[in-house]
Write a structure and sequence with these properties.
By secondary structure, this protein is of the alpha/beta class. The chain has helices spanning 2-7, 9-13, 39-47, 64-77, 90-99, 114-122, 165-170, 179-182, 200-213, 215-228, 238-245, 255-263, 294-302, 306-313, 345-350, 352-363, and strands at residues 49-50, 55-60, 82-87, 108-113, 126-127, 152-164, 191-194, 229-233, 250-254, 268-271, 279-287, 292-293, 318-319.
């Protein structure tokens, strides 16, 4: 893993051009200048911290089946802290946070797409906080724009196709290996994909296509793909589950969920498209509130410790830290970093609203009803 990250540094080191993000934002210096706070500012920051509260509200887009295992070591270290988890897909959590801007309910955001956190930061909704151990986080996985860190990544996830091999055999069809394969007429009505407005996996896939092909060619391609789509769903996991059952045998989803389907016994193949995968970083941040809880800072400190990083690594091949002990979980390609397309997450965040508006206008008619 270490060799993978180092050997492909050219990809990741040019990817997150975050210094361009929010140059005119309130509270953002855009450089390390001004990093030394005045005594009055330090006193003000200290008075803003609630050291008494033992209750924490965490908004997350992490998978339901991951959260319990991840939290084990936090609960062991802080047994008196009540953790309230609010979990939904990336788009829904992002919309909820934006809607609550004037009266934020979350104390901490954990495992939300970095592109979403960049949008929140552009709206001056994140509190500056550098968790203990943040120096261990690779530069491409954390905020480098502000004098004090506003968000910190934990791992990366990527587009994959989850394909039911039994259903393909019944139809005498080959398993698609590329984006171009998906637009072949023989796959008409067999494909589901996440709606990018509600799913982070949907957004990283659409944004990835825009960056991979260029805007005009990407929309032309997605129009062709739309002809083959049976339904757009509101979860990044659901296409993999539908492929697993064979209801819709091809699901545009993400690697982890497909691998879990296969481990559970579903007759699926996990395909990482040969052109490369769109991707994003799962990341954490402290929400800006009148009173910031000390337990929220404690949570962010814990969220990048070795103990929980080992848990993240059970599910994801690309971690935010450089370590000799990291492993590539079964089911991923030998060098998962090389699978990632060149992807400017700052550009993706900047264009998020316009991409979603265009996608909705063109394709939303095939979306499943929202529950």
């Amino acid at each position: 893993m270490k060799k993978s990250l180092i050997g492909t540094a050219a990809i990741l080191s040019t990817v997150l051009l975050l210094s361009a993000c929010g140059g005119g934002q309130a509270g953002s210096t855009g450089s390390k200048a001004g990093a030394e706070a005045s005594p009055a500012a330090i006193a003000g920051a200290a008075s803003n911290v609630d050291t008494a509260s033992k209750e924490l509200t965490v908004y997350t887009a992490l998978e339901d089946d991951q959260i319990k295992a991840y939290l084990t070591t936090f609960k062991a270290k802080y047994p008196d802290v009540k953790v309230n988890i609010v979990r939904d897909s990336t788009g829904i959590i992002t919309a909820k946070l934006l809607a609550e801007k004037a009266n934020p309910q979350a104390d901490v955001v954990w495992g939300l797409a970095a592109t979403s956190l960049l949008v929140l930061d552009q709206n001056t909704m994140l509190e500056a906080y550098a968790p203990k151990g943040v120096d261990r986080i690779l530069p491409d996985f954390k905020d480098t724009n502000n004098a004090v860190t506003h968000w910190v990544g934990i791992d990366a996830w990527e587009t994959a196709f989850i394909v039911n091999t039994k259903e393909m055999e019944k139809r005498h069809l080959a398993v698609p290996q590329s984006y171009e394969d998906l637009v072949k007429p023989e796959y008409k009505g067999l494909i589901t994909m996440p709606n990018p407005s509600s799913s982070g996996t949907g957004f990283l896939t659409v944004s990835g296509l825009v960056q991979l092909k260029g805007k005009d060619q990407a929309w032309d391609y997605m129009t062709k793909l739309h002809d083959n789509i049976a339904m757009y769903v509101h979860s990044g996991s659901k296409p993999a589950k539908l492929a697993g059952t064979g209801e819709y045998p091809i699901g545009i989803s993400f690697g982890y969920r497909g691998i879990q389907e296969k481990k559970a016994g579903s007759p699926v193949e996990v395909v990482f498209p040969k052109e490369g995968s769109g991707w994003d970083v799962e990341a954490n941040a402290l929400m800006k509130k009148d009173k910031v809880k000390q337990v929220a800072k404690d949570f962010l400190d814990w969220a990048i410790t070795d103990d929980v990083m080992k848990e993240y690594n059970k599910n994801y091949a690309i971690l935010a830290i450089k370590t000799d002990s990291a492993k590539i979980p079964d089911g991923y390609s030998v060098d998962p970093v090389k699978q990632l397309i060149k992807n400017d997450l700052n550009e993706a965040a900047k264009n998020r609203d316009s991409i979603l508006a265009e996608w909705d206008k063109r394709f939303d008619a095939k979306s499943e009803p929202k529950s």
